[in-house]
Amino acid sequence: MWYSFIYFMYIYIRKGIDMDSIRLFVKRKRKELKLTQEDLALNAGVGLRFVRDLEQGKTTLRLDKVNDVLGLFGKEVGVIDTTRE
Fold this sequence. Notes:
This is HTH cro/C1-type domain-containing protein. Residues 26-80 form the HTH cro/C1-type domain. It comes from Sphingobacterium paucimobilis HER1398. InterPro entries: Cro/C1-type_HTH, Lambda_DNA-bd_dom_sf, Tscrpt_reg_HipB-like. By secondary structure, this protein is mostly helical. The protein has a domain at 20-71: 434 Repressor (Amino-terminal Domain) (Orthogonal Bundle). Helices cover 53% and strands 7% of the residues. The chain has five helices and two strands; from the N terminus they run H-E-H-H-H-E-H. The protein has a two-stranded antiparallel ribbon with strand order 1-2. Helix 3 (37-44) crosses helix 4 (48-55) and helix 3 (37-44) packs across helix 5 (63-71). The longest helix has 14 residues, at 19-32. The radius of gyration is 13 Å and the shape is elongated.
């Protein structure tokens, strides 16, 4: 099913995906909670390298891992249906 494809999809920087907002949000929330990048990685179940790449604005990241990090703050990135009926 296509839903499983989305789970492993990569985020590519394109018009409509604002990775800068995501990276700034993650960094701000991490600092508000006084977490190190290592703490965030451990709590989200991702690698330290991934957290660093996310906060530095890497242009390709795995969507499932981004959502693992965002989930700690009650947020997620997802597909939005933009078709009009």
